[in-house]
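User: Some background: our group keeps a shared notebook of sequences we're curious about, and every so often someone picks one and asks for a predicted structure to add to the entry. Today it's my turn. The entry only has the sequence so far, pasted here. Could you supply the structure so I can complete it?
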Amino acid sequence: MITVVGLQNPGAEYTNTRHNVGEMVVRAFQERHNLPSFVPSSQYAGEISEGVVDGQEVRLLLPTTYMNKSGSAVKKALHLPEGLIVVHDELALPLGEFKIGYNQGAGSHNGVQSIIDALGMKAFTRLRVGISPTSFFGNMRPPKGERRAKFVLQTFSKKEMSTVEAMLPEVLTALETILTQGREKAMNQFNVS
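Assistant: Of course. Here's the predicted structure to add to the notebook entry:
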């Protein structure tokens, strides 16, 4: 079984925030594949949906811990460490872009660091979804310091949400490729820039 985790902060006040783009992707994946509705699970400290996608058993997890405690939920829900895919926001990528990574450090992402700490390893797949603002000329302008924490907790603007919605089909296809054809094939296909 593959465990796909959409990192989020729980609660209505965090709906459509930049930090919750991982949750948005995983919910869209659940809908696209007609998987069962998410149900709360105290056992896994999150919302769970389980089913089969193209012959592959999948467990979707949206932790209901806060972002910096995600590792405890992931550890409970994980079937096999090599079968973990974490979908999360990434300030090191511009809005509208995504990358597939494996066996990487957390950078400055507290949710990913929590998972690494809880599992005692970083050998898992990450689907990093860009949220960084860009200038008129396309240069990234990620916020620094205290502005960074405020930025990730703000809701997407209408224009930004349009960009996210336009990117979603390709992100979902990348996730499907990881599940059905493997991480290497997906990285070769989607990590082109």
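Suggested note for the entry: The mean pLDDT is 92. The first strand starts at residue 2 and ends at 6.
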